């Protein structure tokens, strides 16, 4: 039966395998089959232990969220948990890869758990707008205490097998996956008492207050508040009542628009991940050694990303003195990551030792993957790729971190176009999760798959895009920023535009963002660009640059900043400069509503995205949502710009775009054919395949 668990007998032990490739997601069918098997073996006189594990390299990614759209999505889970708890035969969960969400709830209900040190354990339900199910709060607090339950269930904290063992969540660690089932059988047939959780010296109130200080954002969302209720009441109610409370909460949350958007966000992120998750002989090997050419700000962040992923990294820069300076900066960045709790001190030390400075470019022949991260100079990049082509073995993959340049033209400088691609990291590269994987005209599918695998390994979300100037993210960002600038020339002020977009859910508006990035940088980008006849130009941005207002670096940009501070203060000089620019351009300034600001900024993103989808540069509307949520700050609780557009309705979006075309001309507001088709047909962007 497709997606259903199966079993094998090993002597007097029954080993049940969750088997729903590629990540063993759990469906109602799987729950029902699992319950039948457990009840059968629990009453069998010939069975002394039941082992629950995953087929392949994963235990399970948890609930199949592609089916999560109503209250029946968790059907059968209460009965399954009850069957596990009622079994007189010990049930041991053997965990590797990932045990996520519902899968972890099932594992916690078992009598014991055996795991590899690197297994990832987490409850991601908060990111879906839901609370964990299967009496998760009850079992986790029993095993590891209140603090762990709050941090994982409400705060969404991930832990490894090593940490879980220290907390008492995992009973035994096994160094290799080959010995995992054998150890689980041994533990299952050993009737000695299980480990108990370590006593805590903190009071219940201190634990709660510390949690609120450490995870302040987790209690703002409805799901976080309800998850907190589950944890706080878990120990005072029965198993059945714990499950009933979780189900009631999730039934309520599944009716919320925010939950629907968050589920969509998780689904489309998972969709970017699934195609390259393989098992057995089909697994694509990770590179043993990565090289980064160009050790400036971006190159350093890229090197840190690979090094913290456990990979050996060779770094090279044509300016030799930049290597020592770069290594010092890497050390400072790693210290900051430790201070912020992103990595441990031990991980920082390992990562630093993984990075090796190379003065002679010829020594990069050891690398299996080379990432070029020099400045955006096409001729310079072509020279570097030609040199790398002569140095590196024929099977080495060469990628560029360009944010906009032509991959095919760079590939033409080599004799290996199949092994050439783009790998566009977002700044700062060691902190942001998004990577655009850019496929050239001749890039081999195996090359793309390799880059997807390595992106996942280093904790990034790799989205495959086509080769067009500025690719997807920057192409769509241009329209967003362009209209924000035009709104200033017509009557708005930076603080109004930023407020509207922050109230929508962005962490910051476009003008605070520009001040952070540097208004001098965006000026030079505009000067290097070409503009078709009749295209409106954002003169107000040039006036800011000409006034020496480069942003936070000069303590003045679109806002005023106190020295050493990042808080943005509206500046009357900026207001005067904007008003004079409007007059110079012949605009009669007017009151602009918040609704117009939101639509003027977001609808170009949707329309331009429709063009990219129609041209095949973006593979799906979901990929565009992933790009904007993980690289450009679109709020997850809104689901991404294409989900937002589907919620508005393509017909309404199309009609508004037509209105803006009439007001502002067709050069920037011509509706995409795909948008027109969806408006006429009644279909959504999500329906486009």
UniProtKB/TrEMBL annotation:
Keywords: Fatty acid metabolism, Isomerase, Lipid degradation, Lipid metabolism, Lyase, Multifunctional enzyme, NAD, Oxidoreductase, Peroxisome
3-hydroxyacyl-CoA dehydrogenase C-terminal domain sequence ranges: 471-561, 597-682
Ranges of residues in domain 3-hydroxyacyl-CoA dehydrogenase NAD binding: 290-467
SUPFAM superfamilies, A to Z: 6-phosphogluconate dehydrogenase C-terminal domain-like, ClpP/crotonase, NAD(P)-binding Rossmann-fold domains
Highest taxon, organism lineage: Bacteria
Cell compartments where the protein resides: Peroxisome
Pfam families: 3HCDH (PF00725), 3HCDH_N (PF02737), ECH_1 (PF00378)
GO terms of biological process kind: fatty acid beta-oxidation
Keyword Cytoplasm: no
Keyword Endoplasmic reticulum in record: no
Protein name: Uncharacterized protein
Cross-referenced InterPro entries: 3-OHacyl-CoA_DH_NAD-bd, 3HC_DH_C, 6-PGluconate_DH-like_C_sf, ClpP/crotonase-like_dom_sf, Enoyl-CoA_hydra/iso, NAD(P)-bd_dom_sf
């Amino acid at each position: 039966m497709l997606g259903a668990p199966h079993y094998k007998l090993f002597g007097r032990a029954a080993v049940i395998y969750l088997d729903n490739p590629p990540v063993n997601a759990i469906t109602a069918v799987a729950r029902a089959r699992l319950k039948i098997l457990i009840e059968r073996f629990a009453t069998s006189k010939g069975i002394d232990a039941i082992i629950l594990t995953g087929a392949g390299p994963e235990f399970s990614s948890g609930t199949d969220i592609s089916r999560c759209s109503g209250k029946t999505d968790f059907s059968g889970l209460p009965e399954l948990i009850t069957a596990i708890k009622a079994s007189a035969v010990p049930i041991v969960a053997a965990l590797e890869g990932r045990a996520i969400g519902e899968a972890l709830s099932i594992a916690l209900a078992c009598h014991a758990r055996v795991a590899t040190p690197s297994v990832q354990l987490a409850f991601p339900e908060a990111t879906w707008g839901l609370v964990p199910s299967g009496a998760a709060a009850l079992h986790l607090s029993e095993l590891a205490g209140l603090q762990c339950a709050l941090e994982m269930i409400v705060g969404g904290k991930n832990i490894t097998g090593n940490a879980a063992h220290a907390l008492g969540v995992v009973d035994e660690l096994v160094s290799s996956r080959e010995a995992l089932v054998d150890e689980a059988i041994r533990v299952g047939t050993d009737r000695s008492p299980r480990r108990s959780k370590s006593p805590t010296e903190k009071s219940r109130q201190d634990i709660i207050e510390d949690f609120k200080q450490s995870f302040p954002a987790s209690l703002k969302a409805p799901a976080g508040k309800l998850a907190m209720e589950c944890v706080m009441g878990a120990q005072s109610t029965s198993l059945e009542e714990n499950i009933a409370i979780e189900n009631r909460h999730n039934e309520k949350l599944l009716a919320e628009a925010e939950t629907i958007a968050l589920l969509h966000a998780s689904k489309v992120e998972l969709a970017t991940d699934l195609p390259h998750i393989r098992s057995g002989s089909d697994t694509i090997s990770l590179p043993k050694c990565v090289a980064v050419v160009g050790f400036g700000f971006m190159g350093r962040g890229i090197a840190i990303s690979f090094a913290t992923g456990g990979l050996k990294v060779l770094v090279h820069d044509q300016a030799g003195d930049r290597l020592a300076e770069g290594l010092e900066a890497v050390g400072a960045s790693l210290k900051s990551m430790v201070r912020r709790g992103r990595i441990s001190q031990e991980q920082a030390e390992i990562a630093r030792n993984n990075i090796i400075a190379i003065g002679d470019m010829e020594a990069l022949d050891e690398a299996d993957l080379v990432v070029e991260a020099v400045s955006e100079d096409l001729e310079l990049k072509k020279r570097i790729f030609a040199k790398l082509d002569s140095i590196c073995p024929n099977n080495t993959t060469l990628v560029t971190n360009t944010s906009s340049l032509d991959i095919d033209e760079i590939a033409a400088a080599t004799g290996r176009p199949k092994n050439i691609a783009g790998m566009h990291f977002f700044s700062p590269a060691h902190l942001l999760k998004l990577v655009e994987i850019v496929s050239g005209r001749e890039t081999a599918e195996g090359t793309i798959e390799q880059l997807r695998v390595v992106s996942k390994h280093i904790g990034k979300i790799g989205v495959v895009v086509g080769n067009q100037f500025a690719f997807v993210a920057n192409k769509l960002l241009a329209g967003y920023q362009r209209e924000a600038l035009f709104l200033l020339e017509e009557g708005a002020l930076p603080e109004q535009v930023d407020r509207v977009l922050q109230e929508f859910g962005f962490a910051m508006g476009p003008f605070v963002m520009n001040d952070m990035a540097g208004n001098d940088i965006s000026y030079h980008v505009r000067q290097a660009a070409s503009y078709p006849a009749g295209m409106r130009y954002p003169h107000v941005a040039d006036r800011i640059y000409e006034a020496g207002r480069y942003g936070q670096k000069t303590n003045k940009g679109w806002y005023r900043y106190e020295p050493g501070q990042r808080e943005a203060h509206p500046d009357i000089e900026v207001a005067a400069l904007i008003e004079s620019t409007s007059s110079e351009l012949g605009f009669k300034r007017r009151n602009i509503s918040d609704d117009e600001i939101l639509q003027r900024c977001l609808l170009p993103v949707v329309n331009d995205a429709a063009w990219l989808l129609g041209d095949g540069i973006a593979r799906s509307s979901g990929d565009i949502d992933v790009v904007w949520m993980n690289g450009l700050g679109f709020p997850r609780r809104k689901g991404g710009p294409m989900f937002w557009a589907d919620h508005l309705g393509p017909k309404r979006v199309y009609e508004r775009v037509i209105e803006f075309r009439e007001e502002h001309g067709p050069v920037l507001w011509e509706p995409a054919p795909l948008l027109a088709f969806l408006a006429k047909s009644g279909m959504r962007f999500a329906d486009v395949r």
